[in-house]
Amino acid sequence: MGGSGDPPEGTSEGAPGGGEEEYGSVVFDESFVQAARLQEFSAQERIGDHTPAVRRRPPMRRGLSRQALVLVVLIAVAFGTAIYMGVRHPYQTPVAKHPEPLRMTVIPLAPQSRVPGSADVDALFASSPADQFRVGAEGITLPASRRTAHFSDSQVVTALTTAKDYLVESSLDPAVLTGGVSRSVRILLDPQQLDQFDQSFRSPTADGRHAPTGWLVRFDPARAELADSKVRVRGTLTAAEADSDTLEVSSDHTFVYALRRAGADEEAAASLFTVRRELHFRFDRDDLRMHQAELLVSYVQAGPLACAEDATNHLRPLLAGETARAGGPAGTDPFATGSTTALCGSLATSSQPKL
Fold first, then answer.
1. Are 334 and 201 in contact (CB under 8 A)?
2. How far apart are CA 248 and CA 268, in angstroms?
3. In this structure, how many other beta carbons lie within 10 angstroms of the beta carbon of residue 249?
């Protein structure tokens, strides 16, 4: 028999507290009671006219909690800040710089004696100062890159590489050298220089701005052709920061070509032709991203050439056995604007092969 107060069958198995009600663990706190939708009328209220024992309470009016309100305010502030920063940010937008027109100078170098020649091209190079030069693009070496105050190592390398690519395409490509295509050179230029480039080839002029030979090396195909595709090259590339948005690259290279008369057979005598190119490039951040360059200065010395020959459109080299004819550059009017004085130099005998 169970004790007093226990059920006849005893305490239910698993019931807590040895007699606690089954729902004793449920706590009906004040918030639970207030949230109830049904409310029982009091005894005094039931004495009155109310027939039902319960009444339906109007739903509680709940507003945003304090945490939710704070979250909404923070989101609004963040969104407004993002819009403001997008319109007016603290970083100064770089001022767009328009490329300057290319300034170019092409100086013919006239030989002082007969141009030496030989059917043995290797012997020509071996007996000239170009004997120790490298072949082709291998002669255009990149210096050890160094980051600057505002440009990373990779950006400096990009500028140097683009300058090298320009030199390769404009000085070593056989299709360009023989007076053919120029597109491979054109696509490496800043788009804002393309009008000047196109006008130079459409209407060549010795005005220091529109000479094709200022942009690239090309020989008159009616006069000369390559006797050897292995051009000898030596020179330097240097890079420096001009300002916080601009890199500048300077190049100084000597190219030595073996040429023979156009249409001659392979047994005909060849001669060497030397071109020294000093180029000055500029790169803004758009140029670096697009792998393009602004060519600012082109200073070219080339020979053997006759001073009387116009070297604006093509280089017309003096070949094996030829000598410079008498006469100098055509007269220049010092009162004419937009033109430069024609120059001509003398090709040192020491630069020629010693056969």
1. no
2. 44
3. 22
Which 3 state secondary structure label does DSSP give 137? helix
Q: Tell me the three state secondary structure of residue 26.
A: coil
Amino acid at 37: R
What is the per-residue pLDDT for 44?
Answer: 66
The continuous run of DSSP H or E covering 27 comes out as none
Cα(14)–Cα(344) distance, integer angstroms: 116
Dihedral sign computed on CA atoms, order 274, 173, 177, 212: negative
| Neighbouring residues of 98: CB distance < 8 A, sequence distance ≥ 6 | 192
Tokens of 109: 């170098």
Separation CA 18–CA 156 (nearest Å): 85
Tokens 């739903």 locate to 59
CA angle 80, 85, 88 (to 5 degrees): 120
Helix, strand or coil, per DSSP, at residue 184: helix
Peptide bond into 204 cis (omega under 30): no
More confident site: 46 or 132: 132
Contact predicate 297/281, CB 8 Å? no
pLDDT at 152 over 80: yes
Q: Find where tokens 């060549």 sit.
A: 204
User: Does pLDDT of 206 surpass 60?
Assistant: yes
pTM of this prediction?
Answer: 0.72
Q: pLDDT for 218-253, tens place per residue?
A: 999 999 999 999 999 999 999 999 999 999 999 999
Token pair of 100 as six digits: 């300057």
| Average pLDDT over the chain, rounded to an integer | 83
Contact by Cβ (8 Å): 335, 98: no
**Angle of CA points 112, 116, 119, to nearest 5°:** 165
